[in-house]
Write the structure tokens for this entry.
Amino acid sequence: MPVGPGSGSGGRVYVTNQQDNTLSVIDARTYKVVATVKAGKAPEGVAVAPDGRHVYIANNGSAQVSVLDTRTNKITTTVPVEKSPTGVGLSPDGRSLYVANGGSNTVSVIDTGTNRVAARIPVGKSPVSVTFSRDGSTAYVANSGSGSLSVINTRTRQVTGNLAAGHSPVGVAVTPDGKSATSPTRWQHVSWPSEPAPVRRLPCRSAKGPSTCRSDQTASRSTPPFSALARYP
């Protein structure tokens, strides 16, 4: 269950319900559902804009991204992307939304000012998640099908490297200092809420160049039937 901070009064948690084709809006203080919003087909990844005014939902089954206005809890627009979008990641400045299209082996870059696709970036096989370096100069894409991590220069929107990961990497996170990225891998037997899973800490690149990273052996990963993001005041 990916969870990220956001802004806005009161605080909200946004949960994609894949089998219901909906998004649940939960009050983070009372833990009550305050709205249920109809999304596209099989919604999966979700991201909250830095200013908290919009939520972006990747609809895996309908190959589109829905844009929610958090003030009205209404979908204001949908953006067509490519096949089977799963993970979404917002650049630190909130201007670009990167969408991992698992069925097309690409990343769609959406300009959040126009809500249009500005670029299409070929990556590894079956990309599932995206995250950014702290300064926003680099995006990292976990490619589940090819066991790799694609490194994207966000200025040129070109892949600058492909790093070997473990079997079927499904997520990626960058440390606060930007010196390393950790990618958990999928395993055959999953228990909820968590179970040890192998991870590799991989070299990272930033505007200042590559850094050397240490290698970790285990980390815990949880696998709920939905994705969620939270924003707090």
